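Appendix B, Record 12. Input sequence as logged:
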Amino acid sequence: MARARQYGVIMQSMEQDPYLWLEEVASEPALGWVGERNAGTEAELTAAPGYAALRTRLKAILDSKDRIPYVGLHGGHYYNFWRDAGHERGLWRRTSFEEYRKPEPQWETVLDLDKLARDEDENWVWAGASFLKPHGSRCLVSLSRGGGDAHVVREFDLDAPAFVPDGFSLPEAKGSAAWIDRDTLFVATDFGPGSMTSSGYPRVVKEWRRGTPLADARLVYEAQEDDLSASAWFDYTPGHERQFVQRQIGFYSSELFVRDAVTGVLTRVEKPEDADAFTVRDQLLVQLRSDWRIGATMWPQGALLAIGFAAFLAGAREFDALFLPTETTSLDGIAVTRDAILLTVLDKVKNRIVELRHADGAWQRREVAAPGMGALGVSGVDELESNDYFLTVTDFLTPSSLYLGHAGSDERELLKSMPAFFDASPYTVGQFEAVSPDGTRIPYFTVMRADTRMDGANPTLLYGYGGFEVSLTPFYSGVTGAGWLDRGLARGGVYVLANIRGGGEFGPRWHQAALKHQRQKAFDDFLAVAEDLIARKLTSPDHLGIMGGSNGGLLVGAALTQRPELFGAVVCQVPLLDMRRYHQLLAGASWMGEYGDPDQPEEWAYIGKYSPYHQVSPQRRYPRVLFTTSTRDDRVHPGHARKMAALMGEQGHNVLYWENTEGGHAGAANNEQTATMWALTYTFLWEELTRKSSPKSANLR
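Logged structural output:
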């Protein structure tokens, strides 16, 4: 309280929150508070043994010219966005496929973001480009100031290459724009008062023609103020051109409409509200989050169904099942080529690929021969004109490789391989299960040296997320390898990835098991994995650290406040922590489908029991915590981390706080900032988890 008075800030609220002033993102008092804590954190951690060498090594990894330059095809060119030491903000560039096949392709620069930022005196961060398809020479370039979700949109001529004078241009907003044709866009943006939802996203979609004021754009659709958002797009598939409008009611509920291009009349696609639906050529695909009864048939949640789109609009409901889940499988991804659909399936948290073709009114399927361990990523090269696809193969210890695959064949061409950024030969990967309090078996991966001693003294980092149906699968990371596994010491770090409920590893049922009033199950799962690691003597509380970001920040915040005796250190990144006010901050209202509405007493009754900001206590002892966030995060408010750090500090707990002034929800806007962020993070963890020589015991359930 005294600290806030010193800044002359009035702290008064219905909930008597003494740190509301820290929610004022760019206020002088709040930024002064941030600056003081950044200085203290940096002074301590940058002086630690090995910090400087680690940061240098991480920066070299991030800037490495041997990284895979992933590409997307348009108009005969393969486009890539690239950052390295000489291009801090990045280059948007392109090449031919013949060049791309070479070890060192020749690239043509399309847009130099560093030069653009200097010329315009703007802190531009690349936010992507949307091409006029199938063969147009224009695109819409999105640029963010400092890395936030809000961005400006500007029309770009790919032939010039340069921005189009007096072309389409949208001011900064959280919104979307999509091509209808060369002279017409669907636009969902901030049109002024009343045009945004309570979640901060557009609720109004308009059709904007070139040469006319944006204010005169034709209304297409208007969602409700308490919906999440509205959007529209054009399916450019020759012979199947259609306009679609979507009302996103909540995070997991939506309505889909097909729009008559002449009259503007909307026809609702009669799918379940919580199902996703989209067209592939003449077919409508529906992915279910809940069971769907049609006549005598009950389609299970997690299924992917297909039917002729015209027939469906005419009333037909005779679906074909493209994927049906089992207890151990879920649908992880869908990719499209000219004649095929490729499904990426998760089977016990490992990927496999199924190829589907629709011919003579029936679906044909085959299993694609692909590596059986690790993660597979599939994307079509050109869904209109080619049956080629890109296949990315990765696991914890094998550098990622990019292949060119061909629908109808198991043959593939190796295009690019990432170099080994650390020596993986001493390490081994294992998969284990912990048992949650309700008996559910929770899988988790371990990455550690093959000669690791089960003596409870291994510095171990447990990572989790457990929300929004996001699946955590094996991945190769030079930053994780160099920063944690390979510390150049006899006893390296152990890395653990937990596949807890709330995620999508086993489909919608796994996610829905931890929704709203059942959120505690995700926390229980994570704590069960921690206990299992300790019981197996892989580590002990003194040497066990946990880390999570965003929803994962809430996860580790709950673990910290519920079972502090299990852990020796906590890294809480861009987190949600004040669950009483989360829905009033930035995009928070859009997540009430995940957590619940704290304004409803019956829902706050269960939310309040785990809200870290409300559960932290001066009477308990906690492991040391490093909170990290970004001033420019316009998705999860930095006030969550600020207030939690301030409250814990006031209560006498030992915490560190670091806030990057750029970077958005990713926490960093360029390789320089990313290297600093991870060097601070891994230095903190290493210092905390290796300074204790004798393991303490945990009061296990």
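The chain is about 20% helix and 35% strand.
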